[in-house]
From TrEMBL:
Name of the protein described by the UniProt record: Reelin domain-containing protein 1
Family to which the UniProt record says this protein belongs: Belongs to the insect defense protein family.
Segment forming the signal sequence: 1-20
GO CC, any one term: extracellular region
Source organism (scientific name): Geodia barretti
Amino acid sequence: MCIASNIMLLLLFSACCAYAYSNGAQLAACNTLTPLHENSTSQISRVPFTIDLDQFEVNGIYQYTPSKEYTLTISGPEDDYFKGFFVQSRLMSDDTTRVGVFAATDPNSRLSSCPKETDGVTHREEMEFKSMEMGWTAPPAGTGPIRFAFAIVHEFDEFWADQRTEMLEEGPATSKASGVTVSVLVLLLLAVLASLQF
C-alpha cells in the first residue's frame, strides 16, 4: 500500500513538473533566464535563433525611440523550429534591471511576472514555433542604452540560456507637439492665402 502511494505521488509530481516546463518560463528563471530542465545544461554553440533588430538600425547603429511601440520577432533557419522562449529587455548599465513594457500579442504566448507582469514574454504551451511576434513599448526618455535578454528552447535537453542581443542606444524622443505645430502652421498659411485672394 505504501509503495503504491509513493508511486502515485511520484507520477503526480512528474506530471506537475512536465506541465510547468511546457507552459512557459517559471518565476525562478526571471533573473537567470535559464530553463529549469533537470539533467540539462545550456548549449555553448551559437544560438541559431535571434530577435530581429533591423527596425532599430539607424545609420549603422541600433537605437530605440523612447516610449515608442514596436513589434519584436524571434526567428531562425527556415527548416528549424523552437519549442520555448523567454524575452526581456534590460539596462546595459545594470543587467538586473528590466525596462520597457511587453505585450503577448500571439495566442501561444503569455506575459511573465518578473516581478511585473509586463517585464517579459514566454510561451504558453510547448509546440514547434517557426517564429514568434510580441509587442514591446520602449522605456521613457532618460533610460539610456538597453539590450534584449532571452532564452530559447529547441528541445527539453537542448536550449540556449541567458543570451543577449546587440546594444540599442537611446534615440531622440518624438515630440508630441510637432504634429500640432505643423497643423497650426498649415492653417495660418491657408488663412494668409485666403486673405490675399480678396
